[in-house]
Amino acid sequence: MQWVNALSKRPSLEAxxxxxxxxxxxxxxxxxxxxxxxxxxxxxxxxxxxxxLLQERLKIPAIIGCCGGGIVGMNPHSQAEEIEGEPALSxxxxxxxxxxxxxxxxxxxxxxxxDSPPQNWIDLIGVNPSDKPQFILLVDPFYxxxxxxxxxxxxxxxxxxxxGGLASGRLTNITAVFHGSEHxxxxxxxxxxxxNIVLETIVAQGCRPIGQPYRVSKGERNIILELEQESNVDxxxxxxxxxxxxxxxxxQKLVQDLSEADRQLAQNSLFIGVVRDEFKxxxxxxxxxxxxxxxxxxxxxxxxxxxxxxxxxxxxFHLRDAQTSKEDLQMLLTRYQQQHPNSSQLAANAGALMxxxxxxxxxxxxxxxxxxxxxxxxxxxxxxxxxxxxxxGPVGDETFLHGYTSVFGxxxxx
Length: 414
What we know:
The chain is of the alpha+beta class. The chain has helices at residues 13-28, 47-57, 118-125, 146-156, 247-256, 260-266, 322-339, 361-365, 370-378; strands at residues 2-8, 34-40, 63-68, 70-74, 80-84, 89-95, 99-107, 134-139, 162-166, 177-179, 182-184, 187-195, 198-204, 208-209, 214-220, 223-233, 237-245, 270-275, 288-297, 302-305, 314-319, 350-357, 383-388, 391-395, 398-402, 406-412.
C-alpha cells in the first residue's frame, strides 16, 4: 500500500493540476487505485473545469473531492502545510493492492428514510456489510439530510468507520463536491474501502470540562429544563445528590467559581459536553460529544443546545481556547502512539486525511500550520485534507457532525 500527496499554490488551475499530477505520479511509482482532490475556494469560478482537466492527465478508476476555504497538503520538503484563503490544490493518490475501492455519490432525495430497513441503505451504497467497509465522506454543506445520512450509514454498517467533512468556502457561498468527471452541489460523495485496509480516527474537539457532571432530569427536543447533580459512591457507582436545579442556576454557580480568565472565555467559548457512555464513572477527554450552547431562557432557567436531549443523559460544561485545543490534540496523538508502538514505521505504507474546522487554523492559534505540524511531529505520514464547514467522525460507536474540531483519518495496512 502506498499513499502520496502533492500540493500546488499556483494561481492558474491548469498549472496547479499539471504540478500536482506530475509530483504525485513521480512519488507513487505505481498505478493509483484511488484519488482524493481538495481545491481552494479561490478557484470557485472554475469548479466545473477541475475534474475534466484532471481526467485528461490522470487515469484513475475512482476519484472524489471537494472544495475548501483552506487546503492541506505536503510541500516539496515533505512538510504538511495549511493554505488558508489563497489558491491551492491538493491531490492524494493511493495504490491499494488487496483493497476494493467503491466510490458513490448521493442526492438527498434518494436517501431512504430512517424507518427503512438496513437493506435499503445497503442497496443504495452497493457494498455488503460483511465486507467491513470503511468510509470517506465529502458532503456539500447545502445537502439537507446530513445527519440522516450519518445515522443511516451507522444503522446499515455498524462498526464501520466513517470520516470526512463538509465542503467550505471562504468569502464565497459557492461550494461543490466532485466525483468521477462531474461536480455537484447540495449532494454527497464518498468511497467505501474494503479488504486489506484499516481506517482509524483521531477526533480532537478541543475542549476541557469545567465544573462537575450533571444528569438531565427534564428535557425536550434540544432544550434542557432541569438538572440533577451527581456524586460518586466509593468510585464504583454514580448517584444523584441534592435538589434538582435549573441549567441556568447550575451555570451561574459554575461561573462564580471560575478564574477571571475563564469567566471571560465563558462569554464566547462555552459549550456542552454530552457523555456518550452513561455508565462510565471516570470521565476523560474523548468521552464527550461537544455541542454548541445555543441560548438561555431566563424565565424558566432552561438552556438550548445543538443536539437533541433526553432525560438520563449526562452533561458537563466545557470551555474552548487555543491552549486547550493544542493540549487536546497532543493528548490524543500521544494516546494513539502508545496504542500503536510501531507507529513510527507507518510512513512507508500509510496516509492520513485531515478535516479541520474553518474556526481553527491561524485564526485560533495565531500561527499557520499548527494542527498539521503537530500531527506530523507524532506521525510522519503523508497528510492531505481541508478546512470544513463541519467535520465527520466517530465518538464512541456513533458517527457525528462536529464543529470547531480537527478529525484525522489514518489509513494503513492491517
